[in-house]
Amino acid sequence: MPDVAERVGGAAQVAGGQVAAGEAGGGRGRLDQVRRFVLSQPLGTGGALIVLVLIATAVLAPVLAPYGPKDATFAPYLPPSAEFPMGTDQIGRDMLSRVVWGARLSLYVGLTSVLFGVTLGALWGVVTAYFGGAADSASQRVVDSLMALPPIILALALMAALGQSVTNVIIALAILLVPTAARTLRSVALSIKEMPYVEAARAAGASEWRVIFRYVVPNTLSTYIVLFTVNIAYAIVVEAALAFLGLGAPPDEPSWGGMLTAGTQALETAPWMIFFPGLAISLTVFGLNLLGDSIRDLTDPRLRGGLG
After folding, report:
1. Residue 25's pLDDT is what?
2. What whole-number distance in Å separates Cα of residue 248 and Cα of residue 238?
C-alpha cells in the first residue's frame, strides 16, 4: 500500500506540474500574441492606447476632474493657467473638468447606441438573409429607404421629433446604424448559409432558428466586431454634430459638441474653448479608426497584417 500511495502521489505531482506548465505556456502564448500584434500592427497599437486612455478617463472622471462639470463658480474666459490648464468657459466653468466628463458622455452615447443599433441591424440582416424570399426583399426596400436619406438629416429629423435629451440622442443614433449593419451582415450571411456545415445541420434535422444562432451568427462575429468598433467613432462624431447644432444633449451637459458651439461665440477672445474639445474629438475618432482598421486586418484573411 505505501508503494501505491507513493506512485499516486508522484503521478499527482507530475500532473500538477503539467497543469502549471500549461498555464505558464498559455500565458506566454498570450504575451507572444500581444507582442506580434504590436510588431505587425503599430498603428493599431497606437489606436488601442488612445482608446484605453479614453476609457480610463471616462471611468475615472470623478477622480481626474478637479471641479464639477457644471460648477460655474469662477470668472468667465480665464485663459489656460496652472490653476485652470484649459481655461474657463463663458459662464466660468472649468474647461478641463468639462472635457474629462465629456469623455464619459461621448463613450456612453457611442457604446450604447452602437450596441443597440449594430446588434439589431445585424440580427435583422442575418435572419432575413437566411429565410430569403419576399420578407428579405421587403426588408431590403426598407433599408434602401433609410440609407437614401443623408444621415445627418435623418438624425436632425429624429431629434426634432423626439426632443432634446441624451436618451433620445442614443435612440436616434441607433436608428441611423441599423440599416448599414443590416445590409453588411446580410451580405455575409448570404454566403455563410450556403456553406456545407450549414447544409449538413439542416439535413440532420436542426430547426431553422437553431441553424441561425448555432452556425450562422457565430461566423459573422468578425464582421460584427469591425462594425462595432468603427461605428463607435461615427456615433461620437454624429453626437457632437447634433450637440453643435443645438439638438443633442442639453446645453448644461458636458458634451464636446456643445463646447464647440459655445467656443464659436468667442473664437477670437477665447480660442481654447474650441481647441481642447476639438482636439478630444479628433484624437478619439483617430484612435478608434486605427483600432478598427487593425481589427479588420486581423479578421480578414485576404488582408495582410494578421497574427498568423
Report:
1. 52
2. 9
